[in-house]
Amino acid sequence: MTFPWYAHYHADFLKGANFRSLEEDGALIRLLDTLYATDDGLIPDDDQALARLWGGNRRSASRLKKRLLESGKIHAQDGYLTSRRVQLELNKMKTTSISRRLAAQIRWNNKGTGHANGYANHNHNKKERRGPPMEVAQRYPTSPTISPELERIEQSRGRKW
């Protein structure tokens, strides 16, 4: 289950930015994006694949990976690279998704009609008047009132209200 977005905690990211180069920051962002795009938050620990991901060669990828591992932003585990924060956030998103799916199933089953009501007001069969109440609409007309003098000037210029 992949998600189209993730929460990027800028304060946490910038906390160690003073000790990372711009190259390391870019590599970390791309690695985090890739980890979030996977189902389990793991990617193989392969320097050649990282070189393709980061747009460099194998030697620079190995150097960048070593620096990110030393900084504690990523971790090697059983031949894979991951991040504790990514694992935490993915688990939180999956839990939220599952609980919302179960709640929707319960709503659908309790309606008796086999589908949930997708309308915000839940009274979509009733005819409702759109707009403000009648007394407000009469008190505050939507079209501006103009003075006869201004209307005469505008008509002489060819404009109609």
**CATH top level label:** Mainly Alpha
Mean pLDDT across all amino acids: 78
Named at the architecture level, the CATH assignment is Orthogonal Bundle
Oligomeric status: single chain
Per CATH, what is the topology?
Arc Repressor Mutant, subunit A
Alpha carbon gyration radius: 29 Å
Give the total of domains.
1
Estimate percent helicity: 40-55%
The total of helices stands at 7
The CATH homologous superfamily is termed Winged helix-like DNA-binding domain superfamily/Winged helix DNA-binding domain
What spatial form do the alpha-carbon principal axes imply? flat
Structural class: mainly alpha
Q: What is the count of β-strands?
A: 3
What distance separates the N and C termini?
A: 57 Å
Strand % is under 5%
- Low-confidence runs of at least 5 consecutive residues: 139-144
The SSE order reads: HHEHHEEHHH
Q: Report the biggest beta sheet as strand number plus sense, adding barrel if it closes.
A: 3 strands, antiparallel
Structure overview:
54% of the residues lie in helices and 5% in strands. With 161 residues, it is mainly α. The chain has one domain (1-114): Winged helix-like DNA-binding domain superfamily/Winged helix DNA-binding domain (Arc Repressor Mutant, subunit A, Orthogonal Bundle), CATH 1.10.10.10. A 3-stranded antiparallel β-sheet has the order 1-3-2. α3 (47-54) packs across α4. The relative contact order is 0.09.
